Amino acid sequence: MYRSTGPAAQVLHVEEIDRPAPGPGEVLVRVHASGVNPTDFKARSGMVPRPIDGFQIPHQDGAGIIEAAGPGVDPGRVGQRVWLFMAAAGRRWGTAAEWTTVPDGHAVPLPDGASFELGASLGVPALTAHWALFADGPVKDKTVLVAGGAGAVGHFAIELAKRAGARVITTVSSAEKAALAEKAGADLVVNYRAAGAADKIHAFAPAVDRVIEVALGANLELDLAVSRPAATVVTYAAQSADPVLPVRACMSANVILRFMLLYGVPETELEQAAADVTAALAAGELTALPVHKYPLEHIAAAHDAAEAGVIGKIIVTP
Question: Please, what is the end-to-end C-alpha distance for the chain in angstroms?
Fold first, then answer.
C-alpha cells in the first residue's frame, strides 16, 4: 500500500491490516494474481494524482476466488473463480493484497481453462481494447491498424479484432515485438521505425478504417497517411508531452479523432465489454503475453519493471 505518492521504493510498503468486509452489492475476493498497468504506477507516482483515503492499495486488475458475498449479491457466487477490473477506481482496496472487495459486476467469471495470471492480465487492457475497437461500430470485414501490437492493449486489440472478423495491421519497433504480434494473429506486422512503413501498409490494404493508437503525437503522420476518409483514430494513452495537431493535414485526411479514458465509460458498457471479453476467453481466442511474476514483498521492483517498459505482463502474486 501507499499513503503518499512518489517513487515505488519510497512509498510502497507491505503491511498487515484488517481484512475488508464486502458491503452491499460487493464481493470479497481472495486474490491469486494482481496485474500491474501504467494507470497503477502513474497514480502511485503522482503523475496522475488521485485522492488517497488514508491509504491506497494499488492495482486495478486481478484474479482470484470469491470468498464472501455482501448484501444483495447471490450467495451462490462464493467459490467462483473470477477476474477483476477497476478494483481501485475511487476505492482504497486494489488487488495488490491477499484480499480485496469489488462491486459484484467487477468480478467476472473466469473460465476454467484460463489461468489466474491471464485473468489478471485482462481488466484495463482488454476493456480498453474492446471500447477502442467497437465504440464506433462493428469491425467485420474492416481494416484495423493497431499501434504497438506487442503491448497489453495492442495484444488484446489484435485478438478481439480478429475474433470480430477484421483484417489487422499492427506496428512494432523490434523483431521481438513483431514475433509477439504475429503470434497474436496480426495479418501484417510493420516496423514503424523502418523506411516505407506507409507503403507496406498500402500494399496490404488500400486504406485503414480504424486506428487503435497508443502514441498519437509520434504516430499521427503515419495514421493520416494510411487512413480512409471518415476513418476513426482512437487514442487511449497520453504521452509526457501533448502533441500539436496538424489541423490542415487532419482536415485533408477527413479523419475522426476519438479520445478515450476507461474510467469515463458507462458502467453498462463496461459490463457488456467484460462479458464479450469473457466469451472470447472461453473460446480460447485470448492469450497471455509473457508473464513476469513478483511476490508481494517485491512490489516496488514490479512497479519499476512496469515503468521501464518490460515486454510482457507484470504480475504480483499475493
Answer: 12
